[in-house]
Amino acid sequence: MDKTTFVKTGMVAATLVCAFGIAVLVAGCQSSAAKKAGFDTALNKFYSSRQDCLWTNPIKFPEMAPTASETQEFNALVDAGLLEKTQATTARRRGRSAEAAKYVLSDYGRLIWKADPARAGYGNFCLGAPQVNTIESYTRVGSAGATEYEVNYRDIVKLPAWATTPSVKKVFPQVSEDSNGQTATATLVKNGNGWKVQTVSPPQPKPMG
Predict the structure, then answer these.
(1) Residue range of the domain that includes 92
(2) Residue 33 located in a structural domain
(3) Residue 63 neighbours by CB distance under 10 Å
(4) What angle do CA 194, 200, 202 make, to 5 degrees?
(5) Are 81 and 108 spatial neighbours (Cβ–Cβ below 8 Å)?
(6) What is the pTM of this model?
(7) Strand-pair category, 131-140 with 126-128
(8) What tens digit of pLDDT does each residue of 168-186 get?
(9) Max CA pair span of the chain
(10) Do residues 117 and 204 lie in contact, with contact meaning Cβ atoms separated by under 8 Å?
(11) d(Cα 130, Cα 56) in Å, to the nearest integer?
(12) Same domain, residue pair 132 and 204
């Protein structure tokens, strides 16, 4: 083999090695993108029925003579247009009466109100369902052939207009936390129907009825 042929053969071999390396890299990137897309879809489906709400447990309206902390919350919701504040007469001992604040749902508030199907009059104001903002990392769990992954991601809630009211964001700290985004970790398992969420940390609200 002359020198020219040797050089050409080496160049061809190098080209093939580079091409193979690029193909492997592209395949790896495509596989990673496909996994992230699958995780994203599964997590958003999981969250779709789990809305973040103002109160952990449903409350009831109309509400009279609330506590000091409730008064702050309700006044903020008056500012947001969800509640109306009136004065009502309450009975006291020895036949005396007194004026007390009464909070009721406004017309706008009734449109936003998420009623509790199990208890009449009870419900909540909800901010919306979290959505995955970024998949930050993922790790295979178990054996090499396992289809179970631990996924670290960041979610965010797109706030409705009423929740951006300054007094609401001040009185309900979780509103700002939701809008700024939070980190979470989930375990996902792949079956015949795609990826399914098994667990999420921190724990998420139960699906709404």
Answers:
(1) 59-124
(2) no
(3) 16
(4) 160
(5) yes
(6) 0.73
(7) unpaired
(8) 999 999 999 999 989 999 9
(9) 119
(10) no
(11) 16
(12) yes
